[in-house]
């Protein structure tokens, strides 16, 4: 099977060069974008998910993260606001850093238009900066924290680490457990 990271690496070569990213940093960036594995699976951060769990037509994000990005360049906030790779995963529903629920930002079934984040974020920037898209904060669940750590580091210190489960099955188990009223 050909390396499906090739197109992503090629697309990021020029911006990566401009940002002075070394090859390791560029590979890390690509690892958050997800690469196709077979017909219906996508690998993201070393974990394999059903493609629909990553390739959602609804783009979501943390308005607090995006506002922090925007405040780094008030003249042109859209060029510094970035969509984080973990926001693409259906199972990720909260920003563990800010305790902000991820919110729908835009929806488009055509990938080329969906992933044109600069255009969409340029239109949303005034509302993001004004806090109009903010939602009430909530503490992340144990599942949220586990998934965040697993995606960030690839490490799993839980008792499930030695079990033979796919990441999708683990996500379903943790979601079910964290949703139970005990």
> Quick one: how many beta strands?
7
Mean pLDDT: 78
Question: Shape from CA axes?
Answer: globular
Rg over CA atoms, rounded to whole Å, is: 17 Å
Structural class: alpha+beta
Secondary-structure map:
Blueprint: H1 6-18, H2 23-31, E1 35-37, E2 41-44, E3 47-50, H3 51-54, E4 58-61, H4 63-70, E5 94-95, E6 100-101, E7 103-107, H5 111-114, H6 117-129, H7 142-153, H8 167-179
Antiparallel strand pairs: 1-2, 2-3, 4-7, 5-6
Helix pairs in contact: 7-8
Compact summary:
By secondary structure, the chain is an alpha+beta fold. It is built from 8 helices and 7 strands.
Can you give a write-up of this model?
There is one protein chain. The protein is of the alpha+beta class. The protein has one domain. Helices cover 42% and strands 13% of the residues. It has helices spanning 6-18, 23-31, 51-54, 63-70, 111-114, 117-129, 142-153, 167-179, and strands at 35-37, 41-44, 47-50, 58-61, 94-95, 100-101, 103-107. A 3-stranded antiparallel β-sheet has the order 1-2-3. Strand 2 and strand 3 form a beta hairpin. It is globular and about 50 Å long. The model has no long low-confidence stretch (mean pLDDT 78).
